[in-house]
Design a protein that fits this description.
six-stranded parallel β-sheet; alpha/beta; 206 residues
């Protein structure tokens, strides 16, 4: 079985898919049979299709990339018609991909504590898959609070938080000049990566 990492975000729309797709692409350019996986997607298939497209050389189907798709663009727990989501099935789907690939980039749904059902969250899915975690954070005002809360929650599960990736996009604000320095003082052993995908690939493979 190859290596893998679980990509989560400090919020929705922080660039998880952007990072996940480019990480798969970069690993494939390095000669690895890397694939992407989006275990649960709500709303469109956009994220899953992007991951399938960048994994095309591995011959994966959309269903393999995205085993569970829910039509409504809300948290899985909030869909109007409840759907049973079996983590055992998602773990089996992951294992099948990992058995064929050198590396699997698994993208979560929304942020770390998005509810999957009445009792479980995306964090529980990451625990079920037992993968190291990379946090994608938008480098903007609010980044410090969101990132420290998320990394603290990851640590509480016992999973390894391998890195925080500061993703730079959107309007420039003054906090972008100070966020990396402030986080570096507070993340202890977690690697902080300031918008450097090559560095992220290195950390994921370490």
């Amino acid at each position: 079985m190859g290596k893998a990492v679980f990509i989560t975000g400090t919020d929705t729309d922080v660039g998880k898919t952007w990072v996940s797709v480019r990480l798969v692409k970069l690993l494939r350019e390095r000669g690895l049979n890397a694939v992407g996986m989006k275990p649960i997607e709500c709303g469109s298939y956009d994220d899953s299709r992007a991951l399938q497209e960048v994994s095309a050389g591995a011959g994966v189907t959309l269903e393999e990339v995205n085993p569970i798709h829910l039509d409504e663009p809300v948290a899985p727990a909030a869909v109007s018609v409840p759907v049973e989501i079996r983590f055992e099935d998602l773990k089996e789907a992951f294992d099948r991909l990992a058995g064929r690939a050198d590396f699997v980039v698994v993208e979560g749904a929304g942020g770390w504590l998005v509810p999957v059902d009445s009792e479980r969250t995306v964090a529980d899915l990451a625990v079920a898959l037992d993968l190291p975690v990379v946090v994608v954070a938008a480098n903007r005002l609010g980044c410090l609070n969101h990132t420290l809360l998320t990394t603290g929650a990851i640590r509480s599960t016992g999973l390894e938080c391998r890195a925080v990736f500061l993703n730079l996009f959107g309007p420039e604000d003054l906090s972008q000049q100070t966020n990396a320095d402030q986080l570096a003082q507070r993340l202890d052993e977690i690697t902080l990566i300031d918008h450097d995908l090559e560095a992220l690939a290195d950390v994921c493979l370490s």
